[in-house]
Amino acid sequence: MKGETIARAWAVTRSDGLVLGFTDHDRALEFGGMTFRPDSGLSAKAVVQGSGLSVDNSEAVGALSDSAITELDLMAGRWDSADVQLWDVDWSDPENRSLVFRGHLGEISRSGGSFRAELRGLSEPLNRAQGRVYHPRCSADLGDGQCRFNLDAPGYSALGIVDQVDGQRVRLRQIDRHDARWFERGQLIVLSGAAAGLRGQIKHDLLLTGMQREVELWAELGLQPAPGDRVKLTAGCDKRAETCRMKFLNYLNFRGFPHLPPEDWLIAPQVNR
């Protein structure tokens, strides 16, 4: 490729399947069945790539555009961890291109009418600690491939309607037949309205009068649901063996070690053992 005809093209894929293409060229580019638009104001600093397990990194900078990346979507978290591909493209012959980066969006910050997003390469997960944790409590996440519990089983989820929202507290109606605290450590999933698709972890679950209950989230949703929006609650697990056996009837798949001796036993004097 000739240096004077090189442009950069981006493909960004959100977790909900939306795919957008951008370019820093002054005209649209087309290749791979996609159109890469020049009107987003998206640009990037130089991509830093290292050998070994060092983290590839860069930064994308752009203007918020109603037709592309909106501040509402950023606040709602819909761009978090979106997949990113970056090419150097010969704009005079788009088939002449090379993929120079593949990864995902990291931390996103907003200021005025612009945003700034970290780009994290594919090697980043290799720096995380791997291996199984030996602990009395379960190491699986409720409903994952190790736990194998079906969260859609009768009694372990509930549909409700938002009545009132006050920060991290969400009051719901039309939810019954569940004890207080049943959904603690579970999830609140917004099903309709502007915040549809957002999820929050439930900290407290209070049963009110009639068919009303109030849940408190660990953190506010990026975009708060409005009264009348539909939500789904899923049961929570504290990862104890007793909870797995009695609440979920799933002890066969328990991934903890409840009979491990505690730490005080390990450091006690080695007498009469």
What does this structure look like?
With 273 residues, this protein is mainly β. The protein contains three helices and 15 strands. The chain has two domains: 3-127; 157-234, Thrombin, subunit H, CATH 2.40.10.170. The protein has a seven-stranded antiparallel β-sheet, with no helix packed on it. It has a six-stranded antiparallel beta barrel with strand order 10-11-14-13-12-15. The chain has a two-stranded antiparallel sheet with strand order 3-4. The longest helix is centred in the first third of the chain and has 6 residues, at 71-76.
The gist of it:
With 273 residues, the protein is mainly beta.
Which helices and strands appear, and what pairs or packs with what?
Elements (H helix, E strand, L loop, with lengths): L5 E8 L5 E5 L5 E3 L2 E3 L6 E2 L12 E7 L7 H6 L6 E8 L6 E15 L2 E8 L35 E10 L2 E5 L13 E4 L8 E9 L5 E5 L12 E5 L6 H6 L16 H5 L6
InterPro entries: Phage_phiJL001_Gp84, Phage_phiJL001_Gp84_C
Protein name: DUF2163 domain-containing protein
Pfam families: Phage_BR0599 (PF09356), Phage_phiJL001_Gp84_N (PF09931)
Number of domains as seen in the coordinates: 2
Biggest sheet: strands side by side, in what order? 2-1-7-8-9-6-5
Structural class: mainly beta
Shape: globular
Strand content: 35-45%
Largest sheet: 7 strands, antiparallel
Features:
Thrombin, subunit H, mainly beta, 273 residues, 2 domains, single chain
